[in-house]
């Protein structure tokens, strides 16, 4: 299920979505199932390790690209003394998306929510491991047992 606020801008082309949006209070949240049908090979994931964002008039362009992992590793060393920055880096454009400002805002909200949830899950997983690691240290701090 997807929150109505996450999908309305993507479904603006649907007249019923616009009617539902204007008839309901802005604060009200409605869950709507959205089923996207694949076209050609659109269901195949495209790997990207590099993104750029550019703004246009009422549109945001997001380019997803792929740069060789060795090149990415070399870029990480750019701040070190004696390392010369390349003039340009070769990469492959994997996908270009043109999003409305509303859709971009919804994407940002969804990504932020995903990142917050992922961080919370990682913290929950790390906490028992951290407590287990601290357990023996606390016992050692009490002194030797004879």
Please, how many helices? 4
Structural class: alpha+beta
Radius of gyration: 24 Å
Please tell me what the overall shape is.
Answer: extended
CA-CA gap between termini? 60 Å
| Helix proportion range | 40-55%
What are the low-pLDDT stretches, counting only 5+ consecutive residues below 50? Answer: 1-22
Proportion of residues in β-strands: 15-25%
Q: Report the strand count.
A: 5
How are the strands of the largest sheet arranged?
3-4-5
Instruction: Give the biggest beta sheet.
Output: 3 strands, antiparallel
- Average per-residue pLDDT, rounded, comes to 78
> Could you state the order of secondary-structure elements as H and E?
EHHEEEHEH
Write out key terms for the chains shown:
two-stranded antiparallel sheet, 42% helix, 146 residues, alpha+beta, 18% strand
Any overview of this molecule?
The chain is α+β, with helices and mostly antiparallel strands and 146 residues long. It contains four helices and five strands. Residues 1-22 have low confidence and may be disordered.
């Amino acid at each position: 299920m997807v929150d109505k606020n996450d999908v309305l801008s993507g479904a603006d082309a649907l007249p019923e979505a616009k009617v539902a949006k204007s008839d309901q209070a802005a604060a009200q949240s409605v869950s709507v199932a959205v089923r996207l049908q694949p076209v050609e090979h659109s269901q195949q994931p495209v790997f990207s390790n590099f993104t750029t964002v550019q703004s246009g008039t009422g549109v945001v362009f997001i380019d997803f690209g792929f740069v060789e992992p060795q090149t990415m590793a070399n870029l990480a060393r750019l701040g070190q003394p004696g390392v010369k920055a390349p003039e340009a880096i070769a990469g492959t454009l994997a996908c270009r998306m043109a999003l409305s400002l509303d859709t971009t805002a919804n994407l940002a909200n969804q990504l932020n929510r995903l990142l917050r949830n992922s961080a919370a899950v990682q913290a929950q997983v790390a906490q028992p491991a951290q407590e287990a690691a601290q357990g023996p240290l606390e016992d050692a701090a009490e002194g030797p047992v004879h």
